[in-house]
UniProtKB/TrEMBL annotation, chain A:
Coiled-coil ranges (or none): none
All copies of domain Peptidase M16 N-terminal, residue ranges: 65-177
Matching PANTHER family: METALLOPROTEASE, ZINC-DEPENDENT PROTEASE
Species name: Anaerobacterium chartisolvens
Name of the featured protein: Putative Zn-dependent peptidase
Peptidase M16 C-terminal domain location: 183-363
Listed GO MF terms: metal ion binding
Automatic annotation (TrEMBL), chain B:
Single GO term (MF): metal ion binding
Protein name (Swiss-Prot/TrEMBL): Putative Zn-dependent peptidase
Annotated ranges, domain Peptidase M16 C-terminal: 191-364
Organism phylogeny: Bacteria, Bacillati, Bacillota, Clostridia, Eubacteriales
Record NCBIfam families: YfmF_fam
UniProt-listed InterPro entries: Metalloenz_LuxS/M16, MPP/UQCRC_Complex, Peptidase_M16_C
SUPFAM superfamilies in UniProt: LuxS/MPP-like metallohydrolase
PANTHER family in the record: INACTIVE METALLOPROTEASE YMFF-RELATED, METALLOPROTEASE
Gene3D superfamilies reported in the protein's UniProt record: Metalloenzyme, LuxS/M16 peptidase-like (3.30.830.10)
């Protein structure tokens, strides 16, 4: 068995890796002294993959919105009942989530890792979907969709994505709509499964106090060969650089307005290390412009325009990238104006090198802090891996990122013409 | 270093004048944490003031008088995090000041972040930025406004709101029914002067417990904390335990209307058992069987069999002896859902509990307890909970007590569960 390792001495972390003959990549990150063992089995397939060419086909297939998430629910069903029951009997908690570009199955346990891991390997590789269970699931997922319809933060987020994008499927709710899921059937679920759950499109990661060799041995015997790796052609509609709309608004039962705003980032096909670099640069800039140590934050907070709920973030994937900032505010438009003004005056005055250095160091510290949690490591590792890099590569980015590069990204990203605002207003009768 | 504790166990290293300091040794983490908790009895009179106080204190101290100064300092401590807030455990209002920071080995040569962090918190709590001898009026005005909005924004999270409102309606006449952030009307009369007066008695008389996690020696901790323990203290308050059982009464039915798509059904029960009761571990297993996980009767029947909901669970409030069941459903399915939920309680009462349901409950509780040790906040919250409940468990003794609960013990607990209040959040139409 060919096991490779990468060591990150300065943070005392180690990655073991192994490639199964089916094409599956497997990783172990040992965490000595931890009780929890966290295993994930993930496929590079998410809600945005609603159009693709099945290997061997000559034409593209279009599938209903929300099907990746629907499939995630259905995989838990097995011939002899729900696999959840088997995990439960071991006292572990299986879970799964569907993102824009990945579906992740996971469990964490403190005991009987091998048995739990065996279950994970087994159920993700062996779908058992019946027409009847598909119909029942429509009721459950329907309630999940309803729950999100009432979730103001979630709505503000998706409305912003709709403002950014006219065609990119990232604008569509991950779970789809009650209408779109009504069109899902057994056959289409299998079609998606057979296309995207090929081992060569998947990875396994285990984080916790485990023996890497044992984990890989179990993978070696538990993985089924599904034939040659075949290229899946993923189709994305053309997306213009400009915003779909600059402002969007919805009313819901909330106590005060809340908002999400941000900049659409037209970076196409950035992958790997460059992705991390750009992410760190934009996050650093967001801290410099509106972080807690900034003049702008002090002003916004002092004037009562933002409160403790104010947060910001940046997302970058192969087909889309955007920054986001938001929270509760009595006057979201005023927040937008202040942020625009601060950016304009920073543009004139230039960035401050000392703040850059201080924040760079603080962000590195915060990154190291995340490594306390096996869940956080697993979650971040997977999303970073599908971009073509390793989680711990962030450290190198924090160490090497230059003031000049950050200046460049500042000029590119914070283009006021690419800034959109999404507001949720209280409905008049609560 | 001498006198080292086994990992993840707590040791009391100081206790005087109502200030207790605990050390939890935890070597596997890359960070250390400091938690300072002030404890008060929940009361209408003080709830809003206790909630407002940390919000005003966090605006600035003598040494770091503004938000910006504090944030800059945190950044210079390698991205240390500082926060504060309030929580409710039973009928106790707990005011928390928190910091975490990377261990010195990741911060570079000669860093002593624990000392710097503690000194910062000590200054923030004991030497606030003042104006004419009282709190800055502008800070107080702004934080009153923020707190008012925070109280009003409870409606935004409908799931949590439904659960909290159900418990509040149950305990309307009891201190537990007070929201930990107080009420909007209580805020009106507070100003810089009255808040400062409250602060003086807060500092002098409320019991304080401090939890420090990290690989540190007791003598060193005592030395670093010596300024804090030297605060002048007087008439340290005694916090009474909550009342667990009430006289039997009619079941309450509450319906609240809002502009929502999904209905939230919450059912509140008195368990007549709290964390210090001998039956408490049986209650934990009972709750596990009823609604504590994917194996539970509620999840299996409301979601998996009937397909009525995405979530359905039961949860305990162990300090006050309450249990709440919650589920998000189509509004027209309310009666059907309630019927299925109540049927599950009946089934347990009748003893219809499978070996699978029982064993899965024990195992999932074991996993949950063991997992706490993987997070420093989890460990601190566990021991804080022990101290609030007046119990003395470690992770190991807790595990043993859970394993010793028999299926009969868990079923027997049913007899203690009394329905109290049904709360339904529904649409305007």
């Amino acid at each position: 068995m060919d096991i490779k390792t990468i060591e990150y001495k300065n943070i005392n972390e180690l990655i073991y890796m192994y490639t199964h003959q089916s094409g599956l990549k497997a990783f172990v990150i040992p965490k000595k002294g931890y009780s929890k063992k966290h295993a994930t089995f993930a496929t590079h397939y998410g809600s945005i993959n609603n159009e693709f060419v099945i290997p061997g086909d000559s034409t593209a297939s279009q599938v209903p919105d929300g099907i990746a998430h629907f499939l995630e629910h259905k995989l838990f069903e097995q011939k002899d009942g729900s696999v959840m029951d088997k995990f439960s009997a071991l006292g572990s908690s299986p879970n799964a989530y569907t993102g824009f570009s990945q579906t992740v199955y996971l469990f964490s346990c403190t005991d009987k890792f091998d048995e739990n891991f065996g279950l994970l390997l087994d159920f993700v590789q062996n779908p058992y979907i019946t027409e009847e269970s598909v119909e029942k699931e429509k009721g459950i997922i329907g309630q999940e969709i309803r729950m999100y319809e009432d979730d103001a933060n979630w709505r503000a987020f998706f409305n912003l994505l709709k403002a950014f994008y006219s065609n990119n499927p990232v604008r569509i709710d991950i779970a789809g709509t009650i209408d779109s899921i009504s069109k899902i059937d057994r056959e289409t679920l299998y079609k998606c499964y057979n296309t995207f759950y090929h081992p060569s499109n998947m990875i396994i990661l285990v984080v916790g106090d485990v023996e890497p060799q044992d984990v890989f041995r179990q993978i070696e015997s538990g993985m089924v060969n599904k034939g040659e790796k075949r290229e899946i052609k993923r189709i994305f509609p053309e997306e213009a650089g400009a915003l779909n709309e600059a402002y969007t608004e919805q009313t819901l039962a909330v106590s005060m307005p809340l908002f999400q705003m941000g900049f659409k980032d037209n970076t196409n096909n950035i992958r790997g290390y460059d992705c991390l670099k750009r992410e760190v640069a934009v996050k650093l800039l967001l801290e410099m412009i509106m972080g807690k140590s900034s003049k702008l934050y002090d002003e916004l907070y002092g004037e009562g325009l933002i409160n403790n709920t104010f947060e910001f973030d940046y997302t970058i994937e192969e087909n889309y990238a955007f920054s986001m900032m938001g929270g509760e505010s009595a006057d979201p438009a005023a927040v937008k104006d202040k942020i625009s003004q601060a950016i304009a005056s920073m543009n004139k005055a230039g960035l401050d090198r000392d703040s850059f250095e201080r924040i760079r160091r603080a962000m590195k510290g915060r990154f190291i802090k995340q490594l306390n949690s096996v869940e956080r490591i697993s979650h971040s590792f997977i999303s970073v891996y599908f971009k073509g890099v390793y989680l711990f590569d962030y450290l190198d980015v924090y160490d090497k990122i230059s003031f000049e590069y950050v200046n460049e990204v500042f000029k590119e990203h914070f283009d006021l013409g690419n800034m959109a605002l999404s507001v949720i207003r209280p409905s008049s009768s609560k | 270093m001498s006198n080292m504790l086994p990992n993840e166990q707590v040791k009391k290293i100081y206790s005087m004048n109502g200030i207790e300091i605990y050390n939890i040794r935890a070597t596997k983490f890359k960070t250390n944490t400091i938690n300072i908790f002030f404890h008060d009895s929940l009361s209408r009179e003080n709830a809003a003031k206790n909630a407002l106080l940390p919000a005003v204190l966090r605006r600035g101290s003598e040494a770091y008088p503004t938000f910006g100064d504090i944030a800059l300092y945190m950044e210079s401590l390698y991205g240390a995090a500082f926060d504060c807030g309030v929580a409710k455990k039973g009928e106790r209002q707990i005011i928390q000041f928190y910091m975490d920071f990377v261990s010195d080995s990741y911060a570079g040569e000669g860093q002593r972040l624990f000392e710097k962090a503690f000194e910062f918190l000590e200054g923030l709590i004991t030497k606030p930025a003042l104006q004419n001898g009282v709190f800055n009026g502008e800070y107080v005005r702004q934080e009153k406004e923020n707190l008012k909005r925070l109280i009003e924004s409870r409606v935004n999270d409908k799931m949590q709101y439904g659960v909290e409102r159900c418990l509040e309606e149950m305990c309307r006449e009891e201190p537990f029914g007070i929201y930990e952030y107080g009420s909007v009307s209580d805020l009106d009369s507070i100003d810089g002067k009255t808040l400062y007066e409250h602060y003086i008695s807060f500092l002098k008389s409320l019991p304080v417990s401090i939890y420090i996690t990290g690989d540190m020696d007791a003598e060193y901790i005592k030395k670093v904390t010596s300024k804090f323990t030297a605060i002048q203290r007087q008439n340290v308050k005694t916090i009474d335990p909550p009342v667990i059982s009430v006289d039997s009464r009619e079941q309450k039915n509450i319906t609240e209307k809002m502009d929502v798509n999904q209905g939230k059904l919450s059912l509140g029960f008195r368990t007549n058992i709290c964390a210090s009761s001998p039956d408490y571990h049986s209650l934990m297993v009972y709750n596990g069987i009823l609604g504590g996980g994917l194996h539970s009767k509620l999840f299996q029947n409301v979601r998996e069999k009937a397909g009525l909901a995405y979530y359905a669970f039961s949860r305990l409030e162990k300090f006050k002896g309450l249990m709440v069941i919650s589920s998000g459903i189509e509004i027209s399915n309310r009666d059907k859902a309630e019927e299925i939920i109540l049927k599950q309680l009946e089934e347990v009462k009748k003893g219809n509990v499978s070996e699978y349901e029982y064993k899965s409950s024990i195992k999932s509780l074991e996993t949950a307890v063991k997992s706490l040790g993987d997070s420093q906040l989890g460990i601190v919250d566990f021991y804080l909970g022990q101290s609030v409940a007046g119990t003395n468990d470690t992770f190991d003794t807790m595990l043993e007590k859970i394993r010793n609960v028999s299926i009969q013990n868990a079923i027997a607990v049913s007899q203690n569960i009394v329905p109290d209040t049904v709360y339904f959040l529904t649409s305007n139409n």
